[in-house]
Amino acid sequence: MRKMSTTLIGLTTALTLTVAACGDSLTGVTSGDELTNAEVAAVLAALGSAFESVGAQAAPSQAAISINENFDVTVPCDSGTLKVSGSISGTVDDVTFDTDVSTTVSWEPNACVVSDDINTFTIDGAPRVELVLDLTTTEDVVTVSGTQSGGFSFTSSDGRAGSCSMDVTFSIVTTATSVDATVTGTICGLAGSGFDTLG
Predict the structure, then answer these.
(1) Is residue 99 part of a domain?
(2) Engineering a disulfide at 192: which of 86, 137, 146, 183 sits with its beta carbon 3.0 to 4.6 angstroms away?
(3) Is residue 199 part of a domain?
(4) Cα 39 to chain center, whole Å?
(5) Which domain does 108 fall in, by range?
(6) pLDDT in tens, 20-58
(7) pTM: predicted TM-score of the whole model, two decimal places
């Protein structure tokens, strides 16, 4: 069961962060120097990848499973650390994979160093990044909705520094043939309506 729940957290978080990071030539920041869209995406990808370090054991296959779990882990960055905490609750059918869960996730970077292959960035929480989402899946449709808020401060290897805040509401409906994503609010000072949908 822990394997299923942490996998769900990781997948839904990655999906949400990808939507928030999409776009081509945007730059933005709340205060200080600007970050490019690719740089923001690199930071968000580092947050999402923290779930790879959450150990879990697979549960025997069974029908509907009730989930009610808390998690609190600190994982290493290239340098520094990233604390990830939160909860997941709801039900998952381990046979059909029909799902109805709610998740809260909080990321608190502490001198966490990430790279976009050009520069390195030292990230701290300002005060943290928080995600609240609801996920439902059936055989044909995956629906994710929620909010992402909070922010981070940064210094970069090329001398830039600033802070980035997030206040985003999102809704994503995915079928076998389409993805319908809506993002409103702002991330790093950029309008959510300016972000592309997945794909």
Answers:
(1) yes
(2) 183
(3) no
(4) 15
(5) 2-194
(6) 444 433 344 567 777 777 787 777 777 777 666 554 444
(7) 0.74
